[in-house]
């Protein structure tokens, strides 16, 4: 598959996103593990309990303000240009010193059809964002404004969070467990494997609920390698 962000037909992007949205991040993580790809965005936690998000990444990077620049420095104006269906992924180096997202950006994001925000940095106005039901994930929370502290450095460039390289167009999936990034060229394979993981675990759970031993159910349904063995689970 080519880059989700550019050459793939929009219908295929929508199909991928909708399919990933139905999956738990634990299943996606197991699928990534099975092909040796790191996907967890380390240190980033859900700020709106129960909110789930899946979409294509729109990357934004911040840097400290240039002290020689204008006296007043707005944090950034970019949100009007974010495509509907995106998840905004912001890299501010994991900073706890100031925010890169709040309630005003949330109102705009919901209006524009943005599916969520992932912050390698800090958010504020968390109570308002929870009331809005907007999927927000961040490294930290603080009340301190980003105005006059950080400025926009780049939009659409590759970023690195922990050991994960993330590009605009990659698939981002988040829930109460945290956030994962799936490289766009691997999205189809990861999706199939994650779906098989969920099918296998559902079959094991049903068997145990009906009285089977856990160890026997795991062996029967191929728990160790569900991406290969899920076919037998589907027959149950």
Automatic annotation (TrEMBL):
Mg(2+) binds at residues 124-125. Its EC number is 4.1.1.112, 4.1.3.17. One of its GO terms (molecular function) is metal ion binding. It catalyses: oxaloacetate + H(+) = pyruvate + CO2; 4-hydroxy-4-methyl-2-oxoglutarate = 2 pyruvate. Keywords: Magnesium, Metal-binding. Its cofactor is a divalent metal cation; Mg(2+). Substrate binds at residues 102-105. InterPro entries: RraA/RraA-like (IPR005493), RraA/RraA-like_sf (IPR036704). The keyword DNA-binding does not apply. It is an enzyme of class 4 (lyase). Catalyzes the aldol cleavage of 4-hydroxy-4-methyl-2-oxoglutarate (HMG) into 2 molecules of pyruvate. Also contains a secondary oxaloacetate (OAA) decarboxylase activity due to the common pyruvate enolate transition state formed following C-C bond cleavage in the retro-aldol and decarboxylation reactions. Homotrimer. Belongs to the class II aldolase/RraA-like family. This is Putative 4-hydroxy-4-methyl-2-oxoglutarate aldolase. The lineage of its organism: Bacteria, Bacillati, Actinomycetota, Actinomycetes, Pseudonocardiales.
């Amino acid at each position: 598959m080519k880059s989700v962000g550019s050459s793939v037909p929009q219908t295929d992007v929508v199909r991928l996103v909708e399919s990933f949205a139905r999956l738990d991040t634990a299943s996606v993580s197991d699928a990534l593990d099975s092909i040796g790809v790191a996907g967890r965005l380390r240190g980033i936690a859900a700020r709106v309990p129960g909110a789930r998000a899946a979409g294509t990444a729109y990357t934004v990077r911040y840097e400290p303000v240039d002290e020689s620049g204008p006296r007043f420095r707005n944090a950034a104006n970019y949100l009007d240009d974010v495509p509907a269906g995106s998840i905004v992924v912001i890299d501010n180096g994991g900073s706890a010193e100031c925010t890169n997202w709040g309630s005003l950006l949330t109102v705009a994001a919901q209006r524009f059809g943005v599916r969520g925000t992932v912050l390698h940095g800090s958010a504020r106005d968390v109570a308002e964002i929870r009331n809005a039901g907007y999927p927000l994930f961040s490294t930290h929370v603080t009340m301190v404004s980003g105005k006059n502290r950080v400025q926009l450095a780049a939009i659409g460039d590759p970023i690195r969070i922990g050991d994960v390289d993330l590009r605009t167009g990659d698939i981002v999936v988040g829930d109460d467990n945290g956030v994962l990034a799936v490289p766009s060229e691997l999205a189809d394979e990861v999706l199939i494997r994650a779906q098989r993981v969920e099918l296998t675990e559902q079959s094991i759970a049903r068997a145990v609920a009906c009285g089977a031993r856990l160890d026997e159910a795991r062996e029967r349904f191929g728990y160790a390698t569900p991406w290969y063995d899920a076919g037998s689970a589907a027959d149950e």
